[in-house]
Amino acid sequence: MSKTLIALIVTFGLAFVVFAALAAGLTTTLRSAVAPLKGKALPTIGVLVANFVLVPLLTGLTLHAFGFVAQATMAFALLSVVAGAPFVAMFTRLGRGDVAYAATMSLILLLVTIPFMPLVLPWMLTVLHVPHAGVTTWHLLEPLLGFLLLPLCIGLAIRWRYPALAQELAPHFSQVALVGIALHITLMFVAFWADVVGEVHTGEYLYSVFMPAGCLIVGYGACLLFMGGARRAAGRGIVLPASLGTAQKGSQALICSLIFAMGKYSVAGVVALGSSVITVVLLVIVAAEIGRRHDQHPRRAAAPVTEAQASPPATAR
Hints:
- α4 (70-80) runs antiparallel to α6 (99-127) and α7 (137-161) packs antiparallel against α8.
- Mean pLDDT is 89; it is low at 301-312.
- The two termini are 30 Å apart.
- The protein is 76% helix and 0% strand.
- It has a single domain (3-309), classed as Na+/H+ antiporter like fold.
- The protein is mainly alpha-helical.
């Protein structure tokens, strides 16, 4: 395989990770991050429980039952422990939910993912009896610190010191991130097309449909459970991003891990990216249908849409 093609795959993947993190920092202030959480602490705890307890646990149990090949199991295990997706705010806007809350929630999930995934994934793979040479806590954590957390902090610093410059740069960085992820996935599928086709008859792509569907239900249920008496007041504006944010996994942490710690596991990369694409398509349909029904019956909406300053990939996930 051409070294140039591999270099392009890595370059575009890292461009997405870095520029989406920069855009997230450039569009975030302390006030914009804290304000959407007012009166929503319990639902947010529910989202955290759903993403970092229920989803990994249920995924581990189902993977043990289905017995996929080792690299496919590795891919789904990785997907279950990364959260904070870049497109949740966009999906929430499409579904007429609370966009500001979606952006803040995604940022929180991303920050928790950075220490959580490197600690949990190696242990999870060991429990599932999946060989994972090189997939260690440090090998997973190091690229997240350098390519995700550092650009996020730089973006936050620019926003703090030079807000006008930050507002000017953020949309351009978001566009670069979108182009980067599109080219990364396209070239990945071109380079490993044989693996893409080879996985069609294994049932793994079918699992890629049921996994986000199950995560939607888990996020919805956990949010409602923790909302308690606030359920009627908060309404669908919170439940929608909670559900979508649980189903859409964190693509930045995912790509960092696939490039560095799991770079030699090409099948795992194909399965993970293929599952991510399937999830995006599924959630676009779900969010669009929810938004359509909201527009048809506006009086049934429990909460209005709250505008967010961040563009789609700005809250890196």
